[in-house]
Amino acid sequence: MVSTIDIEQLRRPLRRDARERRGRLIAAAQHEFAAHGMDASLEQIARQAGVSIGTLYRHFPKRLDLLMAAFRPRLQEFLDEAAKALAMEDPWEGFVYYLENLFGMQVGDRGFNDFLSRRFPGNPETEQIHDEMCQQIDDLLARAQEAGRARPDITRADIVNLIWSNGRIIDATSATAPTAWRRYLYLMLDAYRAERAHPIPEAPMTDQQLYDAMVHLSQMK
Environment class of residue 131 by beta-carbon count within 10 Å: exposed (0-12), middle (13-18) or buried (19+)? Predict the structure, then answer.
């Protein structure tokens, strides 16, 4: 008869093996998503982790489950840095710090760039993260606008559009001019200064239009 202690000793290696397989899958996913974006091949991720595609699906039944496991450390870093920006005494410096950190994190990680640009309705975790990100943008903008440093007609949608634009700049220049994005960020920051404001002939996107556009991006292949 096998004792309880013997059973536990038999179980421990299995649990450890499962944790190791999960860890290899997350590491492989971080590499592949960074290189190829959120639509990277799950089969390639499984091969790189040394497991079958069936094992991948047992650990992560949906692509978004694996995405969140892979992105969670960077997302936490991003949210923490945003909180630091909000705590800065100078509202304009906080706004600039937020955007430079955000754009810097887009560099070299196409998957994280994709995640920032899209919405995934029906997934409470991603919705909460995006809601928190939008609130941080709103708060940073409001501080800079109330201090008279940022032009009053900038909205959350303008910042998200800037994220989309920066993603394309990074795609185009990463191999030849990997820091070019900083030039275009600072050109846009000059356009955002209150003293540079001129009337704009087009109204900003509404929050609903922005949300729908981000959902649309998540559905594109």
Answer: exposed
DSSP state of 195: G
Ranges of the chain with pLDDT below 70: 1-14, 221
The predicted model scores a pTM of 0.84
Predicted local distance difference test score (pLDDT) of residue 218: 84
DSSP string, 134-194: HHHHHHHHHHHHHTT-B-TT--HHHHHHHHHHHHHHHHHHTTT-TTHHHHHHHHHHHHHBG
Q: Closest Cα partner for 220 from 122, 107, 62, 114?
A: 114
According to the model, what pLDDT value does residue 108 have?
Answer: 79
> Range(s) for CATH 1.10.10.60 in the chain?
1-61
Q: Which CATH superfamily is domain 1-61 in?
A: Homeodomain-like (1.10.10.60)
Question: CA 7, 9, 11, 14: dihedral to nearest 10 degrees?
Answer: -150
Classify domain 72-219 by CATH number. Answer: 1.10.357
At residue 221, the pLDDT reads 60
